[in-house]
Write a structure and sequence with these properties.
2 copies of one chain form a homodimer. By secondary structure, the first copy, chain A, is of the alpha/beta class. The first copy, chain A, contains 13 helices and 14 strands. In chain A, strands 5-2-1-9-10-13-14 form a 7-stranded parallel β-sheet, with helices on both faces. In chain A, strands 7-6-8 form a 3-stranded antiparallel β-sheet. In chain A, strands 3-4 form a two-stranded antiparallel ribbon. The first copy, chain A, starts with a strand and ends with a helix.
Chain lengths: ~325, ~325
């Protein structure tokens, strides 16, 4: 049976992830998720990207807000604020249950992989989800005059600062789950899909874990990435703002180049048709398709297209 | 200015406490509260008796439930249960904010006294409330075949077990707040009021702290206690059940005798009029009045009566 691994950051990755689950069973698909955004807040362990994927796959994500849980209420936060607690990170009552349970299980000695599997299972999601590291790796952003933790930069300060560089504290000591590394060598692995997440803030933390980067570089199965940049703009979030601040050309090609040496295939939006030649010249296969995912149908169609691309690249590799 | 100290456990103590605050200002009244029921649950520090007093004095207590906060919601607990979290201790969304904030402040290095002052102040309560100990003292109950933590006995198992004895783990090493001990020697101290709380589960933990017991025994100001037993029955909670299990006579007199050597005065309910002589024979002054506190007026009238009793006893002492 063919198996796939989806590498994901937050919302964009989870969207394609949802599409993939409409086609592949839990035996055929697993996830590797960024935990560079993880942090401790109000005494609880928060794993934003894991939760985004979990809520998306379980059907519990909040469609209106674009983050957090559906049917959310805010009594806790309202009271916490009155008590002098920080309120810039909006902890919903139901969302908080996830963080408290995660904290409780971690404190009892379980690994983040184990805790994640337990939470996914409790919410009815059977797909395996590996955190990139069992130990803490923290994405931090250098601005002109300070070093900010990711959540302070992203949520508290609404990405207002100009990013000079990004570091991943603890990546040297990162402990990727052992069975994740083994999965890269699974003879049934038919493709690794780097979802359309922010390359610098969501995918780079994962790639900063050396054994993961090495496993990806040495992977026999095709590795493809979907561009989060369409027509020179990021679909969501601060990707294009950060690219500008890092003096990078605002183009899907920049993303393809960023993954150079790791990917065999790159998926471009139809609006970026003109970039095909330039990217193919670097030795990377290119697929052009609609990459905007507004509806569930969009997600499933893109997932199907991406899987076919993987399969074709696999046939080429083996042929 | 005359000052008073009210020693309180849970609901019964808080009721009289509320009455006292209708008469005395924050310069005239402070509280000493049981923390033997404190425990860590779902990763957060819970101080049930401190919270009962805080919610009562701030007008936030839940009148219908008889515990917890008014306008409470349960989204957190509902979700926590789904995630495999324990639900026997009912953490409301707003209540949880108190526990999480307490935990956060304690983890930052503040003492329980400091944290309590901060929480009271945030909820608009200006009265000082001392925990009996900055360090952990845990009330535990020996049953026929097990040793149960207080909350397991009281909340989880609904006091179903037969109590053989009660211990206060950590009381030897207890650290009562220094300014509390000094307060007992304040020349303005005009009375110490042991509220009508469970003597065995709520007041004994406080008295198990040696320096508090000594301060009380040596206190120049009158010390009075209000019986939580009326007509051979406890007004609320398991007091009479526990007294029966400990083979104690179900009578207000038993409570008066329990405080022998510590109190100068005892307040009996009018239904227990016939006990006056027996208790007075032990050298303790007795006041008979209505001690049932259903309405705010009941509470205030009892508080006024108790304060006058204190004042009269003080005049006797000094005379």
């Amino acid at each position: 049976m063919k198996k796939f691994l989806a590498i994901s950051g937050g919302v964009g990755g989870a969207k394609l992830g949802l599409g993939l689950t409409k086609i592949l069973s839990e035996d055929q698909l697993s996830f590797l998720v960024n935990t560079g955004d993880d942090f401790k807040h109000a005494g609880v362990n928060i794993s934003p990207d894991i939760d985004t994927l979990m809520y998306t796959l379980s059907g519990l994500s909040n469609q209106e807000l674009g983050w957090g849980r559906a049917d959310e209420s805010w009594a806790f936060l309202d009271s916490f604020k009155t008590l002098g607690g920080e309120s810039w990170f909006q902890l919903g009552d139901r969302d908080l249950a996830v963080h408290l349970r995660r904290t409780e299980l971690l404190d009892s000695g379980q690994s983040l992989s184990e805790v994640t599997a337990e939470l996914f299972s409790r919410l009815g999601v059977k797909y395996r989800c590996w955190p990139m590291s069992e130990s803490k790796v923290s994405t931090k952003v250098y601005t002109d005059d300070s070093l900010l933790s990711f959540q302070h930069y992203f949520v508290r300060d609404h990405c207002a600062h100009e990013v000079k560089s990004i570091v991943f504290d603890g990546s040297e000591q990162a402990q990727p789950p052992q069975d994740l590394i083994e999965y890269f060598n699974d003879p049934d692995l038919a493709g690794v899909i780097i979802c359309p997440s922010n390359p610098y803030l969501s995918i780079d933390p994962i790639l900063s874990v050396k054994s993961i980067r090495r496993a990806l570089a040495c992977c026999v199965a095709p590795v493809i990435a979907i561009s989060p940049i369409i027509n020179g703009e990021s679909v969501k979030g601060p990707t294009s703002k950060i690219m500008a601040e890092l003096k990078l050309e605002l183009s899907a090609k920049t993303v393809a180049m960023h993954y150079d040496g790791l990917i065999n295939g790159f998926v471009l939006d139809t609006l970026d048709q003109q970039l095909v030649g330039e990217i193919e010249d670097t030795g990377c296969a290119v697929l052009v398709t609609n990459t905007m995912m507004n509806t569930l149908d969009d997600k499933t169609v893109l997932a199907q297209t991406v899987l076919e691309f993987c399969n074709n690249l696999g046939d080429l590799k083996c042929g």
